[in-house]
Amino acid sequence: MLAVLACVAYSAMTAAQSGVPTEYEIKAAFLFNFTKFVEWPATAFADTRAPIVLGVLGEDPFGNSLSLIVDGQLVRGRGIIIRKYRLGDDVRRCHVLFVSASEQARTAQILGGLQGASVLTVSDFAGFAGGGGVVQFFMEEDRVRFVVNVEAAARADLRVSAKLLAVAHVINEVRGVR
Question: Does 178 map to a domain?
Fold first, then answer.
């Protein structure tokens, strides 16, 4: 189901283009779709009209894919804005944070700094979900798949939809994964 949604978002982005989507175009579509299947507490937003902030920490592997996908989109009546962050920036007001592989060595510091914040952390380097991140992308049979660490989601006070969990590899504790 989520794969279908990712394809729909991607096809809207590339209606005038042809070709096969890249790995990061697909991951960008997933990031957008995660906003539809995760609920944040009301306290995660400044007010009822505040946008969902989708951030990228470190080197941005998405190019303009993320911007093209979220442009003009609404999720639960909220717009989506993209922010680029560097280490040291305040990412606690972000709702979805993609942690680039360039920040892998600082994962513990980044996740530690987010304790008590309702941030859906996502990355694609090995061990991210097992190390306390919420979502980790991985490749399987040339397809983008993902792991969800439900305990990390619960610690961040995030409610992950059963529909999303049905298409994910789910782990229930902090441990090594892929």
Answer: no
